[in-house]
Design brief:
single chain; about 250 residues; alpha/beta; six-stranded mixed sheet; five-stranded mixed sheet; about 35% helix
C-alpha cells in the first residue's frame, strides 16, 4: 500500500481531526512510498527503531512519536539520531496519541477494560464525547487486594495500590491509561469505588486517602501496550499487512 494511503486508512479509523492533542497525529516522518512490512510498538525510542531496521520494516506505527508540544524544535542529539535512522532506512513513522487512547474498540482504554474484565459504561467526562478517561463496572465485586492481583497477573507488573479509607468491595471503577492520574478526583466525585491509571503523582496518594477511593498505579508503558498492538492486528486482518509487535521493556 502507498504510504500516504496508509495514513488515510489510519486517519479514517482513528479520527485524529476530532481530538485536540499535544503532538501531530499521522505520518510524522516520511519514508519509502510502498509499505508492506510494519513494526508496531509503544514509543519511537532508538531501541524500537533499531529493531524495525533489523526487521526490514517499511513503516513503524507507535503511540508515542515525536514533535510534542513544548519540546525543543531543533533536530539534534537524540532526536537527530532517531530521525536519521528512520530516514536512512526509508522507514515511515506513524504516531497516534490520544486518538489511540480513546478509540472505542482498539484504544488503550478499551483494550485495558477487555483484559481486566470491566464492562464499559461510558466516558468519565460526561460532557466530552471523546473523554480520555472512562468508567465501568466489574462483573463481580473484588477486594482491593484481589483487583491488584488481577492487574499484576494481566500486565505482568505489580501495581501501586492505595486503599486507605476505601470501600471493602470494588464494584465500579474508572480508568485512564498512561498519564491520567488527575482524573481520580472526578472518579471520586462520581462515587466510583476505584480508579486506575498508568502514572502516579505524589498528590495522588493523598487524594485517594482523603476521598476514600481505591487507586491503582499500573504503569504508563504497561497500560499502553495493547492499543497499538490491537491496531497492528487490525491492519493484518483488514489489509493483510505483515505486522510485528515489538515490546521494548520499560518499568515506568
Amino acid at each position: 500500500m502507498n504510504n500516504l494511503k496508509l495514513e488515510a486508512v489510519l486517519n479514517k479509523l482513528l479520527s485524529p481531526h476530532l481530538i485536540k492533542d499535544y503532538c501531530p497525529n499521522g505520518l510524522q516522518v516520511e519514508g519509502k512510498a510502498e509499505v508492506k512490512k510494519i513494526v508496531t510498538g509503544v514509543t519511537a525510542c532508538q531501541a524500537l527503531i533499531d529493531r524495525a531496521i533489523e526487521e526490514k520494516a517499511d513503516a513503524l506505527v507507535v503511540h508515542h512519536g515525536f514533535f510534542w508540544k513544548g519540546e525543543a524544535a531543533e533536530i539534534r542529539g537524540m532526536k537527530f539520531r532517531r530521525i536519521k535512522a528512520l530516514m536512512d532506512n526509508g522507514i515511515n513513522l506513524y504516531a497516534y496519541h490520544l486518538p489511540l487512547d480513546v478509540h472505542s474498540e482498539i484504544g488503550n482504554n478499551a483494550q485495558l477494560a477487555k483484559l481486566l474484565g470491566f464492562d464499559v459504561l461510558g466516558g468519565l467526562e460526561a460532557d466530552n464525547p471523546k473523554s480520555v478517561a472512562i468508567h465501568g463496572q466489574l462483573e463481580e465485586p473484588l477486594t482491593g487486594e484481589e483487583l491488584a492481583a488481577r492487574i499484576a497477573m494481566t500486565l505482568h507488573r505489580e501495581p501501586l495500590h492505595i486503599g486507605d479509607n476505601a470501600p471493602a468491595e470494588i464494584k465500579t471503577v474508572g480508568w485512564c491509561t498512561g498519564g491520567g492520574q488527575d482524573f481520580i478526583e472526578l472518579a471520586a466525585q462520581k462515587g466510583l469505588d476505584a480508579f486506575i491509571s498508568g502514572e502516579v503523582s505524589e498528590r495522588t496518594t493523598h487524594i485517594a486517602r482523603e476521598l476514600g477511593i481505591h487507586y491503582f498505579g499500573a504503569g504508563h508503558h504497561a497500560t499502553e501496550r495493547y492499543g497499538v498492538k490491537a491496531l497492528g492486528e487490525w491492519l493484518v486482518q483488514e489489509h493483510q499487512f505483515d505486522v510485528t509487535f515489538i515490546d521494548i521493556d520499560n518499568p515506568v
